[in-house]
Structures are given as C-alpha cells and as structure tokens.
Amino acid sequence: MSSETSVIERVLPKRLQKIDPAVLIAFGCIILLLLVGALYSRNFLSPAYLLQQLKVASFLAVIATGMMLVILLGQIDLSVPWVVTAGAMMACAAASHGMTGAILAIPFGILCGGLIGLVNGFATAYLRIPSMIITLATNAVTQGLMVVYTGGFSPQDTASPAMRYLATGSLIPGIPNGVLMWVIVGAGAVFLLTRTTFGRAVYGIGNRERAAFLSGINTRRVVMIAFVMSGALSAFGGVLLAGYASKAAQSMGDAYLLPAIAAVVLGGTHVLGGRGSYLGTVAGAILITLLQSILSVMQIEEAGRQLIYGAVIVAMLLLYGRQKAA
Predict the structure, then answer these.
(1) What is the number of H-type helices and E-type strands within the chain?
(2) 196 sits in which H/E element
(3) Does 96 score more than 90 pLDDT?
(4) What is the mean pLDDT of residues 297-307?
(5) Residue 28 within a domain
(6) Which residues form the domain of 226?
(7) Is residue 325 predicted with pLDDT exceeding 60?
(8) What is the pLDDT averaged over residues 20-38?
(9) What is d(CA 20, CA 16) in angstroms, rounded to the nearest whole number?
C-alpha cells in the first residue's frame, strides 16, 4: 500500500494527490470514452452533442445524489424506480387540476417521493428492517398504487409548462435548465456533506454506526432524513424526466436504478459506506451517460447494458469490500 502511495506522490501534482484515485480514474475513463465515441461519429465531440449529454446526465445525477447519501450510510435504496415514476405521475396529475394544480405540481411530486422515503427511513432506522428489504417492498407497493391509479394504462395527464421549462428550457443562454438544476442540487449536496453536522454524521455512521451513536449522534434521525432526501431527489428526477418527455410513463424509472448505483460507486463512494465525494458522483454520472450513448451507437440491447452495469457494481463491491476489511 505504501509503495502505491509513493508512486502516486511521484507521478501526480500535489493538488491532484488530494483527490481520491477512483475519481481520477473515472475522469480518465470519461476522456477515453470521448475518444472512443469520436471514432464512431465525428459529432461526438461537438459542443452541441456534449451539451446534450450533460442534459441527459443531469437527470441521472439528481437521482444519484440521493442514492449517494444512502450509500454513504452503508444502506441501499431499491425503491428508486417507482419513486421516480410516482413523482412524475403525481406531478402530472396535480398539473391537470387548473392553475393551482399547475403551481403545486412540482412540489407535490417531490413531496410524494419524500413521503415514500420517510417510510423507508423510519422502517430502516427505527424498526431495524434491512434497507434492501424495506425499499424493495415499498417499490412494489408504489408500483401497485400507480397501476391502480392509472388502471394499468399509460397516464393521460401531461406535464405542466413549468415542468417542461424546468427540464428543457434555458434560463441562462446556452445552459439547459436541467444542468442548472444539477448544479443547484450538487452545490447543496456538497455543502451538506462538507459543511454541516449532518454531513459529518453521515460519514460517521457509514464508518461505524455504533461508534457514532456512542459519540452522541442521533443515528436514527440521520438515517431517516437521508432516506427522505433520497426519495425526494428521486421524485424530483422523475419530475424533470416528465417535463423532458412532456408526460409521465409507466416504469419510466426502471432504467435508473442500476445506473444510479453504478454512478455512485464508479465515483469512488464505498458501497459499504463511510467514504466518498460528490465530485466522484459527478464523474460517475457523466461516465454512465457517455457509456449509455456509446452502447446505443453500437446498438447494444438493454439487456446487455444492464449486464454491464451489474458487472461494474459487483466489481466495485469486491474491490471496496476488500479495502474495508483491510
């Protein structure tokens, strides 16, 4: 381990030495993917195409931000697929109720996600139900509720003008609002994790929950709040997706569970909790988006993409699991 550290110190500048090597590897992979993509299409490196990829990455990054908070605790949130869908459906449903509904559509969709997160957090923190079990259960329950709401058909409600503007508009010329929302969410996450007692508690619980509890941290409350934020951010991602597509759709969140987890772990966040930076999640979201784009250009089917994401997560679990044990 010391020999690896000395090599890094000799090769990298002092500023880069402070960055997690996993983050540097992720950004290196981004550059590699850009070069590979340029071999398939000359437009791959065009500013317009790269900006479009950032817009697509912003939806994944918002969802991955909430996932990161949960993973830092050493937990997992498997309810993401239908929380994303429920947030989108409920926001569109509210938008169909006149001017008042259109105004409240976005916060209502986010609130629905937060309530699902509250159930997950309460069950995990206070009832001591494993997060993998309870989030999988709430995902199934949410799916059932949405199927009952729609009668099993595609929702007829459409996104409000505010939802469409938030996802596809451009408040600052040249910068899509989706990217702007990502910047705001990311800045809030960085501040929360690095400048607040809550952020320090999240890292402390992820490293050793019992030690954090004995040091005076209200571990149950922190865990519950993290799950609420995960649910709210997943629902917000669903709201943005509904605005982007102009309507919600059944199972629209299914494609975001594995990519969200992969984005977090690819950026160096330990799947067992306690270590990770938001810069890594940024790199992971961009990396996954570019990978999706290249796989699409190469006409790899969805099953193949999911296989790749799963393999990445297993590989990082083995890597970080061994480091944690050491």
Answers:
(1) 15, 0
(2) none
(3) no
(4) 77
(5) no
(6) 64-254
(7) no
(8) 83
(9) 8
